[in-house]
Write a structure and sequence with these properties.
mainly alpha; 19 helices; transmembrane helix; LPLAT_7/PORCN-like; membrane
Length: 372
Amino acid sequence: MIQTQKLTSLAFALHDGRYKDEKELSHDQKSQAVKKLPDLLEYLSYMFYFHGIMVGPLTFFNDYIAFIEEKDVTNKSEQSSMKHPTADLNKLVVKKLLVATACCLGMMLLPGLFFNPEKLNSPDFYSWSFAYKVLFILGAMTIAKQKYYFAWKLADAVNNAAGFGFSGYDQHGSPQWDLTDNVDIWGVEMSTSLKVNIDSWNKKTLLWLRRLVYDRAPMQKTLSVFTCSAFWHGFYPGYYVTFGTGALMTVVARQVRRNIRPWFQRSVYSRLIYDCITFIATRLANSYICFPFLILEFYSCINMYKSIYFFYHVLTLASYLCFYVMTSSRSRPNPTVFNRGQLQTADQSQLQTGTAKENSDSNLPQDPIKQD
């Protein structure tokens, strides 16, 4: 999967750099464009470097070459008076390793205590109440994510230990080693919007999809991204159920944030209420969307959704219809005003016609009978 990302990203970068007019490229595409065809050593080194061969994360060709040629740290540190980027690198690597260790322990210990993901779609699951099913899905998916946290944080630490991952300085002058950071655990678990939740998960894959699909798709960009992501993962039906549901909820979540959020920004308390509601809704939506990713089989996914009454699908579709009706009513012209305008126009035209007729009648000769 990582090799597919590297190969396709390099292919598009070469296409942008060698065959497209520079005026047609965005600023991001210009920064990633590759104008010179890599030689065999550069290509194989990029595709199979040891600290990114297993779980990645994806790195783009220009970033990797800058690391190999030591331009990533040298150029950015020379342009700044801040301390050298590698000054506290060892401490940062240790912190990331500790986070990875904690996630590993959670992955191994928590399923034996409660919310074991293996009980999803089990006979016991279908015997539980609706509320406990929803709660169990939420807890099981939280535990299931620990293995991804562990792998990505470990990979990030390994890349940083190799000297790869420096992206510049923040506004406080601290070195940032997040070029190979693939997940924001806090953003995933504590976000108050589905967009932030998605943006915090598998960040390099999201960047790959944005650069290769979203920025280039002529239409239906969101649907194109989710379809490509499902196809990239494989052919298990559960992947397509997850990404199809995710695409629908992402579209509706944008409408909710655009239309509902402004009503809660009038005071601190209303904003707090909105954040609490959206936090719970986002956590439930994330687990509701993602559990087919573990189940994989189509009918098993449908049976699980059926056991909880497709409740989030129903809420999502109902919200979509409400926003559609609201949008249609806003864009529809007011028939009363329109008809009144027509009447006013008609009255004015009739008045003008009558006046013109009177004027024309005054120019006619008098009735000869009356003259007599």
